[in-house]
Predict the 3D structure of the following.
Amino acid sequence: MNTEPVPKPTVSVVIPVYNAGDYLEECLQSIADQSLGFDRLEIVAVDDASTDGSADLLDAWAARHPGRVRVVRLEENTGAPGGPRNRGIETATGEFLFFADPDDRLGTEALERMVGAARRDGSDVVLGRIRGVGRKAPITPFRKNVEGGDVFSCKAVWTLTAHKLFRRSLVEEHRLRFTEGVRLAEEQMFVVPAYLHARSMSVVADYDCYHLIHRDGFPHLTHEAPEPGPFYANLRDVLGVVVDHVPPGSRRNSLVYRWVTLEILGRFKEPFAELPDATRALHVQLAGQLLRDYAPPELVAELPPLSRLRCLLLSQGAEEELTALCALVPRPRPTPEIPSAPPVPHARPRPRLRGRIRALTVALAGKAGR
């Protein structure tokens, strides 16, 4: 029996696992196959009370790779990845942390390239290019490599998922943890402070480090409608971190713009009209308060007409008008390609709609200013 101590790992890969038995093997194997060397890695898999074969698969990997695969078992399902990730942080021993999901996989050179960038640039956070496989993936931060950048030069706020490399000393120094019990955007209270506290950041844009994979039948939390109370409370905490770290002005506005357009206004599109009355009212109330508190007039003024209109309606608590607007501007749907089919009748009147939106925005702005 080999009794030699296992060397301290360079990277601890933390994986929250819940009923992912159909895909977990592929994820684990992509980590074991890393060009950095499995002997420099540690897998910390946190089983969130799975009811399929995930726990047995993890035990088998731990038995085959003692000291390399560590399994943490939770007695009750937490309902979201934040809690399991936090348990993984507490268990991990590596110099760096990387967070993976059990239905995704890493590119073979991912950790070698990301650790190399961290060492070269003295970076506390490294963003490795994310490739969407049947899913959308961020593009803006990965247009070019960045050496020794920051949250601004890396355009980092346009990728807030946890699939990054973080220096563990940064995480422990600032006691960074994921929000628990929230099923959407729970990563942001970990990732955003990490960006803002980082001494340096790097971007690896010339290699697909992480494969974000759509799996039929596997639940993806980004597709779920969030509970308004916890969702907006979490956003308020995140925006509070931003305003605490970045002085007022154009640089702060460039960051807040992301939350205004995606997280807040993004809730008021076609699906909003299908929510129960009480849920719609709560969305309007909480989102409107966030806009009043964190979106200065000069930021709103730079938004496109439709977004400015939504901001105005939210600031006035105009739930009925917001619901009607969702029906007026439906979500685009692809038109089947049919040979020799006549032009789609409703495909043309967009300019007139834009004109109506612009006029209504001006009228509401004037009314609000009185």
